[in-house]
Amino acid sequence: MDAIARLMTRAVSAGVIEPRERPQHFARGLHELLQKRGMAVYFSSVGASHVDLAQAVRETPPDTAVIFIQYAPAWFGVLPLIVAVLRWRLAGRWVVLCRTRAPFDRPKQRLAYEVLRRLVGVELVGTESLEEALGSWPPERLPPAHRLAAGWRAERGPAPLAEILDLLRCPRCRAALAMEGPELVCSEGHRHPVVDGIPVLLPERVDLELDRHAAEHPAGDAYDAASHPGWHELGFHKRDLVARLLRRAPVPRASIDVGCGDWGLHHGIAGSIGRDLAVAGDISLDLVRHARGASTAPGRIHYLVFSAEALPFREGVFDLTYCSEVLEHLSRPEEALAEMRRTSDAGRAILTIPNEAVTGKLEKDHVQTFGYEAFQALVRRYLAVRRTLGVYLFVEQDIDALPRTLWGRLRMALYLRAGRFFPARSVNVIVDGRFRS
Ligand SMILES: [Zn+2]
Description:
By secondary structure, this protein is an alpha/beta fold. The protein folds into two domains: about 5-135, 3-Layer(aba) Sandwich (Rossmann fold); about 205-435, Rossmann fold, CATH 3.40.50.150. The chain has helices at about 5-10, 25-35, 50-60, 80-90, 105-120, 130-135, 210-215, 230-245, 265-270, 285-295, 335-345, 355-360, 370-380, 405-420, and strands spanning about 15-20, 40-45, 65-70, 95-100, 120-125, 175-180, 185, 190-195, 200, 255-260, 275-280, 300-305, 320-325, 345-355, 385-395, 425-435. The strands form two sheets. Strands 6-7-8-9-12-11-10-13-14-16-15 form an eleven-stranded mixed β-sheet, sandwiched between helices. A five-stranded parallel β-sheet has the order 2-1-3-4-5, with helices on both faces. The structure holds zinc ion.
């Protein structure tokens, strides 16, 4: 059995870290190989400084069980790398260090590398050739089984449409669908295109104005790290909070991410989590294409274009429904909740909204302006709510100004954590519950 097959018996999610500007093809080759074998893989090109590496640790998706680091002696400062490895290890990750046979320039480097080597789970030498490096993997050195990933089916190819055809329903008439050439057709004759492997299952004939959608929803706009450092931080905090909620329960059998958006911040945890089935979709083909491109696990997730108000699935499919920052965009959010309940197997639901009663309107295309009470009243008609958490206690308005100073960062850390206990006064509200059957 080869190294990857052995690894996948213990963990099926991995991160691959490559030194930026010093790519040696190893990390990219490894990334491709792991993905091809069905692992969920997070890939990152990382700068050499403490700040860059700290950011890489921060951005690691919460379900990542194993981190591969392509070590380049003249690039990564060993000390920042040691700190990063320690932080990954404290977060329960297992680290694989990959390096070339090239000698070290300075004795100090050699010594520091020796420290690093002792911190990692396994060291692979011979990175000029991928086969050589993987061949050097000692069979007994394997990570402990990861809690989130352990329940996933180990081997998975790309997600073919045929796998979910039985579950799909026409969004116009709810009849079953069949493949007919490049289209999905129902018994009433409603035709739905499949574009780029992505079924477009919308209730009306919606004009796919891709350019307009792309202009209206640029990738990663709201949580962009450079221009919105505060919102970026808030997004990570929310992601990690949801990941913690998910870890408390067994790995779900079938999950759906309703309104996956265009990139991977939340996606990595909710979209890719279903053990047997993971589905993610949004209203625009362009958003879904972006999401698939940014995904850690494109082969594990079925991507579709759908409307939250007419989900193209039969009754009782999912046991985890995740819907983050979507309901405020809908003119009929109660229809979306009814659809989520219909397609759920009386399963768990994690719903989040921006609390615009506290912040004021955040985006012009928010049709609903939810406050905490209104949102609770709405969701309690469909869900037995188990817990409600907040993110970021809204004390200071200029969230993006905070990470720019040390004192601001400390305050932000406090507000982020305090929000949890004061959801009614927080920027985001997370509801965790179960659909009433
Ligand atoms: Zn139909």
